[in-house]
């Protein structure tokens, strides 16, 4: 027995001698079964996705008829953008882009179908994001004044497209009231106010001349930007810090329409689909991880679809899953570092970095875990990889289920979807997953995804340019 113990590395487990290799392989199998049981809550099969597609479709119909169904959580706001670019748009335009902690001012030059853009980025500090609306819009006006001076256009009153990427209800092309702040903004005195008017008043205070032609969100801008290159683009999608979608709808399907009924009898609909599920319609697929994330957000109970999809939340969902597994002694040998215990500490960019790491040993994963002060084994590296994969895969599937409802609603057999957002751009599996499940969910449609080139800036200018072209043709 002595020689066998030496050769086989026997260990005593609960009073019994066992081969070390047999014990640990069996433990690893049991551990993986337990891990998979917990992560299984994040798995959505094709039937689940078809069900979610149906629920989104119902919410869309309800939102379009919200004149009679005001409780719809998917708002389906008409944008009053009714024509796509035809390539003849020309001239110089300003574009403002507010949708996160970085604010941009752009000079956009359109000529002969070509687009030249001169952008400048300004940082918005937290105290401005959470201060007063007057402070926020005064800051935007100051940035515009500085930019105009740098471009030698102080006295030039160019048409302006204002990308304001927050849930808004449009009252016309250049009039929109904020429904609710998202993405960490909470500036007072802006909700239920016309953001174009607030910007105009701030510019008057700062003696900045401007002509606001259009207020749009980044989703509509993305659609218009891609439609400039592809005439089959009728859907815009954002998958970044937040998520939203828009598409071109027939006017006779829009009960809330209060504009004219002249040609073209269509309008782009800003879905504000991030709120899908706020009425309880997604409770059966939300996990304990999702509920824990929701508890620590500023808008608890709101934007529940977005909180399962967008880059602002995927890292925290992953961290919640890691903490739960560690608490059950299935990860990090039950030891949770102070860093891993800190909410929002596991950034969503880590998911992209981890999924890009195809090395057997998980070199990048190990670097991230060291940064998070988590002692780890090769088994832990594999589990962390599985967690991040499950969270990202679910997000891609949920987006695709929503898009399948949009394609179904439009009834077009050929459609291009313009997409913008860091998650789509940089995550290595997001596009392939969406492509795969689009074919599964809408097999009769030919769907192409097109990466937007600066939709929020270029698109806003194009919307203003189309409006100027149409006004000149009347």
UniProtKB/TrEMBL annotation:
Domain Hexokinase C-terminal: 235-466
GO cellular component terms, semicolon-separated: cytosol; mitochondrion
Family, as annotated: Belongs to the hexokinase family.
SUPFAM superfamilies to which the protein is assigned, alphabetical: Actin-like ATPase domain
Entry EC no(s): 2.7.1.-
Biological process terms in GO annotation: glucose metabolic process; glycolytic process; intracellular glucose homeostasis
Protein name, entry field: Phosphotransferase
A Pfam short name: Hexokinase_2
Domain Hexokinase N-terminal: 35-227
Catalytic activity: a D-hexose + ATP = a D-hexose 6-phosphate + ADP + H(+); D-fructose + ATP = D-fructose 6-phosphate + ADP + H(+); D-glucose + ATP = D-glucose 6-phosphate + ADP + H(+)
PROSITE patterns: HEXOKINASE_1, HEXOKINASE_2
UniProt GO molecular function: ATP binding; D-glucose binding; fructokinase activity; glucokinase activity
InterPro entries xrefs: ATPase_NBD, Hexokinase, Hexokinase_BS, Hexokinase_C, Hexokinase_N
Pathway, per record: Carbohydrate metabolism; hexose metabolism; Carbohydrate degradation; glycolysis; D-glyceraldehyde 3-phosphate and glycerone phosphate from D-glucose: step 1/4
